[in-house]
Structure formats: C-alpha cells, structure tokens
Design goal:
The complex is a heterodimer.
Chain A: H1 2-9, H2 18-36, H3 38-41, H4 45-62, E1 69-74, E2 77-82, H5 90-108, H6 111-122, H7 127-144, H8 147-164, H9 171-185, H10 194-203, H11 207-232, H12 241-252, H13 263-282, H14 289-306, H15 313-319, H16 322-340, H17 343-355, H18 359-376, H19 379-392, H20 400-411, H21 421-432, H22 439-465
Chain B: H1 2-14, E1 28-32, H2 37-51, H3 55-58, E2 61-65, H4 73-83, E3 87-91, H5 107-115, E4 120-123, E5 141-146, H6 153-162, E6 168-176, H7 177-187, H8 195-223, E7 229-237, H9 239-250, E8 254-257, H10 271-277, E9 283-285
Parallel strand pairs in B: 1-2, 1-3, 3-4, 5-6, 5-8, 6-7, 8-9
Antiparallel strand pairs in B: 4-9
Classes of the chains: A mainly alpha, B alpha/beta.
C-alpha cells in the first residue's frame, strides 16, 4: 500500500510539501543523467555527485527538509555532527578502502600474475582451453578481488598471450566474454561487488549465506557464457600436432616467477589472501570482530600487508581510487537528503505497485527493471536507493526482493559497455588493441549473453531464493 | 588506465625469448687465400687443424681456394657460390696490400659477408704478424657479441658449435652507454617521468633480458648434453672498447658476431668496427 510505504519512509521526518519532493526528484533525475553522461562531460563521478551533494544539502536547509546537524551518541557522550557526516555509511567505505589497499599490496607480491601465467601454461596454448581457463580465472578474481582489477589482470594477459600465440583475431571474443564474466563473478560473494556490499549489508545477509545462495547461479551462468562465447566467436581447439607443438612452445616462454620479487613475500601474501577470505567469510560469527564488522577486517588486513612496505606506504595511498570513495561518500549524502525530502518514498510507491503484482511477476519485474536501469547508469546509486527503500519497507532478509536487486544491478552491467566499470575496462582494452567496437556494436554482441543470463537469473531467484 | 599498462608490462616481461638449440652442420669448409700455391696448401692445413678442435667442424671436408684461382672479387664470389660451402675462411684485404693499413676489411670480405649466406671466418692476416699468442691454437674460449642478444638463437648456436668440448662459451651483451645517457637526459627534461626511477628501471630491464636469455641458453645446452661452460658478460658501456677489453680478459680464441642488418645493405653497424679493429684473433661473421 503506498500510504503505508510513505509512512514507513517518512518515519522520523516531518511532512514535506509535494512540490519540494518533486523538486528533489528532478535533481535525482539530473544526477542519474549526469552519471550516464559521465564520459561525455569529462568529469569524474566523485565531482559530479559531490556537486549534487552540495546543492541538495543547501536546498535541504533552504526548504527545511534536513537539520543542519544531528546529535550522535557515542559511548555515553553526545556529539553534534553536521548532517553530511552520519549520512555516510562508513562501514561500506571501510570495506572498499581496506579491500582495495589489501588487493593492491597483495598484487605486488606477484601472486595474481603467477596464477594467471600458470593457467596460461596449463592451457598449452590451446585457444578453447585458454578461453575456459581465462573465463574461470575472471570469475574467481572478480569474486575475490573486484571486477575492475580482475578485468585489468585477465584482459592485459589476454592481449599479451594471444599476440604471442598469433591468435590476435580471437581477442574480441576473449575480451567480451571476460568482461561479461566479471559481472557474473561479482555476484559470488558479499564483497565481490559494491551493490552486493550495499544490499547485503542493508538486508543483513551474512557472507556465507550470500555465497551459498549465489554460487549455483554463478556456476551455471559462467559455464553457459563461456560455452556461448566459444560457439559464437568460433574459438576452436587446435587441430594438428604441429599447431599444438608450436602453441606449447610459445606459452612455455612465459616465466610465472618473473613478477615475484621476493619468494618470502609471495608466500606471505598467498597465506594472507587465504586468511582474508576465511576471516571475511566468518566475520559474522567471530567474537568481538562481528561487532566491528567487515570494514574493520579489511582495514586490518590492509595494514598488515602495508607493513611490508612501511617506508613507502604513501605510494599505495596514492594508488587508492579516491574518486570511487568520494563518489560513495557524496552519494550517501545525496541519498540521505533525498530520503528526508520523501523522494525515496515517492519511488517506493512505484516500487510497491510492482511488488504488488505478486511474488512471481513482482520479483521478476524488479530484477529486470534493476538490470535495465543498471545498463545505462551506475548500478551503485540504484543499489543504494533500492536498498534504502527495501529497508524502509521492513523487507525481511530472506525476501527474494533483495536478490532481485543484487542480480539485476550486477547483470545489468552486461547489456551495454557503460553498464559497469569492468565492461568499460574491457572496451578500453579492446580499443587499446585496435579492436573497433562501438557502443551499438558492443550491445549487439552482448545482448544474447545478457538476455540468457537474466532469464536464468529470474528463474533462479523465483525457484530457489523465493 | 595506467593499471592496464602496469599489468601488460608485467606479462610482457614474463614472456621471455627462450633459446632453442639447433645443430650446426659443417659439411664443407672452404679456405680462401691469396697466398702463392706453394704456401696456400700449408695455410689451408693450418686452418683445418685449428677448426677441427670444434666437434662440429671435425667431420667436415676442407678445400683451399688459392689466389691464382680467383683473380677478381666477382670471380671469387662465383667460385664460393659454386663450391656451396658451409663455412668460408679468409682474411682481410684479399688480393690487395691494404692489410698494411689497419682501416678496412677489403672489398672481397665486404662483399662476401653481405652477398653470400655462408658464414665467413675472418682470420688474422698471415703476413701482418699481429695475431695473438693464443690465436689459432685451439677454440677453448669462444665469445658471442651483440647489442641485442635475447632471441638471437642462430648466433648462439653457431658460437656453441664452434666451441671445443670442455671449452667456455661467453655470451656478451653491451648496451651502448652513450645512447642510454642520451635517453635519460631527455627523460630528465620530461616532468611527468621520475628520472631517477626511470634510470634504474630501464637499466635493470635492459640488462635483465639478455641475462634471462643466457640462463635459458645455459639450461638448454646442459639439457642437450653439450659439454660447454656458458658464461655471461652483460653491461652498459662502449661497444668497441668494452669488447676489446673482454676479448683480452678472456683470451678469446674466436669471436662470433652478426654482420647482416635487414634494414641496410652495408654491414651491421657494430660488426664493421669490430672486424676492422680486432685483427689478432679469428672472427666468425654470420
């Protein structure tokens, strides 16, 4: 019921005139359009959303939608903080900052390149095997690291190895499949992608529960995507012994140990990566740690790894994606103000209409709508907004609606090249390798994969997660 | 997208040229001399004795082409082509007294090294009397020289084939210090590149590539059971003076180098000055 929803969302906030709500809705639309046109206006996400945050905060004060400051109770003391400080979900920021620092330092050990080259050699240079190995590696790296880093590692290796094998004509198929698989791998765990972190945290889904729920879909979608890629791009196995001998000779020239500067650090990084996954997976049940959350775990592991480079940690601080973190911080501020301005309540009314279509049609429609919206704009604001709305509705953590948002927000990135940061990286690597792929060209090639993935996702959510 | 570049660099660096051993078959060796017939056969026998130290040259047949048979360069080239040898042995300034002025190879060698596919072993001139004490005694110390060693399998295969059993094959790679300094000077004027870091990283990578390749040579020859010790000499320096020093330090019995350059008709830029100046030991010019 729309009225119930409005009441739920506006709990704790005073009444806002509809004209003001519509004004802020218009600002939200402008923000979404600006993010969609990020490449055209040559501005970074953090600045775009930062400017909107400044505007909505000021307008929020002018129209008395938000208080300038709020009291925050910490350890028996009451602090008065400007509204934009508690608006930010610092646990999400901590997870992203800690994870990216941890991954960046770990990659310096040569571990990821070692794995990548080992797999290349294990394929013996056979293109079909190479596609499967690189595809599986993309999924695992996307799940353990992040989608963009996974695409950068596997995509750059693809360019180098296919050229060495004299198979540059297969590069488009490889890079497209890998780009699509980053968004499938991004579904595997709670920390594999930012929408997962936002939605999973809001829904109160544990790491293990998330993994158990998502893993079967990821396995099926991965297999199907690679199989389709091999068929549609005619990536065949080598036919003759001479071809196999030549290919084996080419890949044997790769030295997996070349990027390892210290065997000791390599071993240490391997152990730490294993420990990181185990601790993140069990955070919700670890005494003391569960109270501090995954952000604490990520930051702790980052700090331990940085000890190896204690005299040059500033190098790693500089390498942090501050644009992404600034984007999140500003986004949380914008969404906080929009919530106070009842914009989320207004969207919630529409959402509740869709939910009202029933468990099957409603859940499926939200998944598809989330995917379509994510295909043309950033999936993070979408996930953040929908998570906020579903939380306000009191949606239980076992509701399939959460999964509709998670699957839709991740898989929507596979429809267009701007649908996710990792597909954008894939297209950039294509262009770097002189492969001319237009926006329309990418969509034409990607849509068959995305359509099948979405159909399976809808069926999976309805059959197994509802 | 600097991260893409970073990882591409890591993977490119990991894709190393690996040495592939290949047998060098010497079936027929042709010794060319302008000495009178009475001395030519003796000279030919001396060269044969010297070359038979190398197992690859032991089973070859040896012929001597004396000066009376080739009065002009054109005639010489034709005779060599007709003989179809695996290796030609000669010395500087054939059919000329130019050997008295140590500034050239002479027309015959210039053309022979560039027009014929057959490697030429340039020996110290028999009349010049400047050959090193250890020269032409055995082939215990062979050195291959190049400014781009990594991937040059042919050069290494020939050098290994000419090293006698139990001998030492030294693979040397000298990067031109003056060219390196020139580029670092330019980098020093580009504010977006850290000059000190660039100097260290470029030097390290330049020297690492031949070192990795030499390691693969060492492994491949050991695996093939070739009874040769492989040593390496890799440095930044001045080509000519460094090679001169290395040859003296190692008492090199034979120097192996490339003479062909796909981009020019004349001899490879590094080969000519080495061939002109290092007159006291045999040079195998491929």
């Amino acid at each position: 019921m729309p009225t119930t929803l409005l009441l739920a969302l506006s709990e704790g906030h005073h009444d806002v005139p509809m004209s003001v709500t519509l004004l802020f809705t218009g600002i939200l639309v402008a923000l979404i359009v600006s993010l969609a046109l990020e490449e055209k206006i040559h501005a970074k996400k953090s600045l775009i959303v930062g400017v909107f945050a400044i505007i909505v905060l000021l307008l929020g004060m002018v129209f008395q939608v938000v208080p300038g400051s709020v009291p925050v109770h910490v350890g028996g003391e009451t602090l008065t903080l400007p509204i934009y400080i508690p608006s930010i979900d610092w646990s999400v920021i901590a997870i992203i900052l800690g994870s990216s620092l941890f991954v960046d330092v770990t990659s310096k050990s040569g571990l990821f390149t070692w794995i990548a080259i080992k797999l290349t050699k294990a394929s013996a240079g056979d293109p079909r095997k190479l596609l499967w190995f690189y595809g599986l590696m993309t999924v695992v790296f996307s799940a353990v690291l992040n989608n963009v880093t996974a695409m950068i590692i596997v995509g750059s290796l693809t360019g180098v190895s296919l050229r060495k094998l004299g198979r540059a004509e297969m590069m488009l198929g490889f890079l497209l499949v890998e780009g699509l698989l980053t968004n499938i791998g991004g579904l595997l765990t709670l920390i594999s992608s930012v929408p997962n972190i936002i939605v999973g945290t809001a829904a109160g889904i544990s790491f293990v529960s998330f993994f158990i729920a998502a893993a079967p879909f990821v396995v099926v979608a991965t297999g199907l995507t690679i199989w389709m890629g091999a068929k549609l791009f005619k990536i065949e196995s080598l036919a003759t012994d001479d071809e196999r001998k030549d290919a084996l000779e080419q890949v044997s020239a790769f030295d997996e140990n070349d990027g390892i500067e210290s065997k000791g650090f390599f071993t240490f990084a391997s152990l730490m990566l294993g420990a990181f996954i185990v601790v993140i997976a069990t955070t919700s049940v670890l005494p003391y740690v569960k109270e501090l959350g995954m952000g604490y775990v990520a930051m702790t592991f980052a700090a331990i790894m940085l000890i190896r480079y204690k005299s040059s940690v500033d190098t790693y601080y500089k390498a942090v994606d501050w644009d992404l973190l600034g984007f999140f911080a500003a986004l949380f501020v914008v969404i906080g103000v929009l919530e106070h301005a009842q914009v989320l309540g207004l969207i919630g009314q529409g959402l509740e209409v869709i939910i009202g279509w029933g468990d099957v049609a409603g859940t499926g429609a939200i998944l598809i709508a989330s995917a379509l919206a994510s295909s043309v704009t950033d999936n993070i604001p979408l996930a953040a907004m929908l998570a906020k709305i579903l939380s306000s509705l009191g949606t239980p953590s076992d509701s399939p609606l959460w999964w509709s948002v998670v699957f839709g927000a991740n898989l929507g990135g596979n429809i267009t090249p701007i649908g996710s940061a990792s597909t954008l990286v894939a297209v950039t690597i294509m262009h770097k390798n002189d492969l001319k792929v237009s926006f329309g060209g990418f969509v034409a090639k990607a849509v068959p994969y995305a359509a099948i993935q979405l159909v399976i996702a809808v069926a999976y959510v309805l059959l197994f997660l509802a | 997208m600097t991260q893409v570049d970073q990882f591409e660099s890591v993977f490119r660096a990991a894709a190393k040229p690996v040495f592939h051993p290949a047998a060098v078959e010497l079936e027929r060796v042709l010794v060319v001399t302008d000495l009178p017939p009475s001395e030519a056969q003796g000279y030919g026998a001396q060269v044969e004795t010297f070359l038979r130290h190398a197992a690859s040259a032991d089973a070859a047949s040896y012929d001597t082409l004396a000066g009376v048979e080739a009065r002009s360069t054109g005639q010489l080239l034709q005779l060599v082509e007709d003989a179809a040898p695996s290796l030609v042995c000669a010395y500087r300034n054939l059919f000329s007294d130019g050997w008295q002025w140590p500034h050239s190879l002479g027309e015959a060698l210039d053309l022979l090294t560039q027009t014929s596919e057959v490697p030429v072993l340039v020996l110290p001139h028999p009349k010049e009397g400047s050959q090193a004490e250890h020269a032409l005694q055995n082939i215990n110390q062979v050195m291959a020289v190049t400014d781009h060693l990594a991937g040059d399998d042919r050069l290494v295969n020939w050098a290994a084939a000419m090293t006698q059993d139990g001998g030492t094959l030294t693979l040397s790679h000298v990067e031109d210090q003056s060219v390196f300094d020139r580029y670092i000077d330019v980098i020093g004027k580009i504010s977006s590149i850290d000059t000190d870091s660039a100097r260290v990283s470029i030097e390290k990578q330049l020297l690492k590539e031949p070192a990795d390749y030499i390691e693969s040579v060492r492994e491949a020859l050991a695996k093939a059971g070739t009874p040769v010790t492989v040593e390496s000499e890799i440095r930044l320096g001045n080509h000519l003076s460094d090679y001169r020093t290395l040859v003296a330090e190692h008492e090199v019995d034979m120097l192996v180098l490339n003479t062909r350059d796909d981009e020019q008709l004349a001899m490879h830029g590094l080969a000519y000055p080495i061939a002109v100046e290092l007159r006291d030991i045999p040079l195998l010019m491929l």
